[in-house]
Design goal:
2 copies of one chain form a homodimer. By secondary structure, chain A is α+β, with helices and mostly antiparallel strands. The first copy, chain A, is about 40% helix and about 20% strand. The longest helix of chain A has 25 residues. Chain A is globular, with a radius of gyration of 19 Å. Chains A and B meet through helix 5 and helix 6 of A and helix 5 and helix 6 of B. Bound molecules: manganese (II) ion (4 copies). The first copy, chain A, binds a DNA duplex through helix 3.
DNA sequence: AATATATTTTAGTCAAGACTAAATATTTTG
DNA sequence: CAAAATATTTAGTCTTGACTAAAATATATT
């Protein structure tokens, strides 16, 4: 019997994907805090996902979880929905990039595959969402990401912003006001080694950004 | 404490509204069959809705339920969502009138009030959905319905179809093929008193329709 | 290596919303 | 109008996905 992917399961898988994108495993606590749920609840759900047939996660006590191939497909399906929806809310209903996330978070679980196809086609099969994040393809492959966090650049390096990995509206509005949006060209002017602040120049403006911002802005070095 | 309107509660309220539009009360069995749920489950939910604060339904054992003013507002909110969504799926994504219902059924519960306003504005505040059904206004009033069921017309009477109260895809395609869609002008040519069949003429075509169809087509006599 | 701290798991509860089976009420009919 | 048929309610159960409190394990610090 095929496991039903409830909203809750979809959210777990999506968040496990996002935590493990770079190889590490997702810890109980990290998942709990992203999902706004207690760690004990995560353990329960993770055990269930691990013993589902087919299994959706790989799990060993105290070692965190990683997605199985089935789990990854399911996660990418949700992420594709989310990012297509965000793009489409912006393009057709005039939402701004700081407004789309909450709406997409709810819609992602309920749209049909037909709806997914229709909005993708209507937009000409976009590659990125309004934050610049890559949209998984229709056959559920995540395109290759050739960017690095801005926090890894040093004075003298130049880059173009590819995406901003953030959903909090205030941060997004702050960045937009500064012109720190996908496509923007920036130059790193200064680095303070102890607090990890970077001084960034875009056009004629400069701004000092802390690590909690620079680690969320992904750039392509140029 | 304000009652949370779960998806399930929203569906109960919507269906109670539709069953009681014409004054009667909604029976346990009728609700159960619309909601694809057992009668015992309906009794349980209805008792809960009746003792919610504020109460959403009026309930007396074995007498069925009616909506309170609060329940009615909540029902109209869901119906407004549903019908706006149907209109919008047709207008912007090329859905046909037989495809929209299932999608709207899921989306109706998750869109925000902001989304509702945006699609209403984008369509110029439409009055009717793709089936011709009236859309409750933004302040949750149901506009006056000046139509009657086609089944109440008799030979010699003329009418224009205002709406079709149906969601089954096959029936809708059948009617569309016959040209029996909102706006169509029809004439009743014959009535067979025992089986309630009506012979309907539209343009140069004629068709005999049974009561289970003519009771779902609402017309304005002309 | 021993202890303190942080993380994770277990065990037991709860609420929502369905279900079945049995009891009761209402309606229809001979 | 009483029996039969139909409709509704009650009582008890189940699943999902949370929660708290307590126990177990892992990691960090001395
Ligand atoms: Mn988002
Ligand atoms: Mn979600
Ligand atoms: Mn509909
Ligand atoms: Mn619904």
């Amino acid at each position: 019997m095929e496991q039903t992917l409830t909203n809750s399961i979809q959210d777990y898988l999506k968040n496990i994907y996002e935590l493990t994108e770079n190889g590490e495993s997702a810890s109980t606590n990290a998942l709990a805090s992203r999902l706004n749920v207690k760690p004990a609840s995560v353990t329960g759900m993770v055990q269930k996902l691990a013993s589902a047939k087919p299994a959706l996660v790989e799990y060993q006590k105290h070692q965190g979880v990683t997605l199985t191939d089935d789990g990854k497909k399911a996660a990418l399906e949700v992420i594709r929905h989310h990012r297509l929806l965000e793009a489409w809310l912006v393009q057709t209903l005039g939402y701004t990039w700081d407004e789309v996330h909450a709406e997409a978070e709810k819609l992602e679980h309920v749209i049909s595959e037909d709806f997914e196809r229709r909005i993708a086609a209507a937009m000409g099969h976009p590659l990125r969402d309004p934050h610049g994040e890559l949209i998984p393809t229709a056959d559920l492959q995540m395109p290759l990401d050739d960017s690095t966090p801005l926090s890894s650049l040093r004075p003298g390096q130049f880059g173009k912003i590819e995406y901003v990995k953030a959903s909090e509206a205030e941060l997004l509005r702050y960045l937009e006001n500064l012109g720190l949006i996908p496509g923007a060209d920036i130059e790193v002017k200064d680095h303070s080694p102890f607090d990890h602040n970077l001084t960034i120049k875009m056009g004629r403006k400069s701004v000092v950004l802390g690590l909690n911002i620079t680690s969320k802005i992904y750039v392509k070095e140029s």
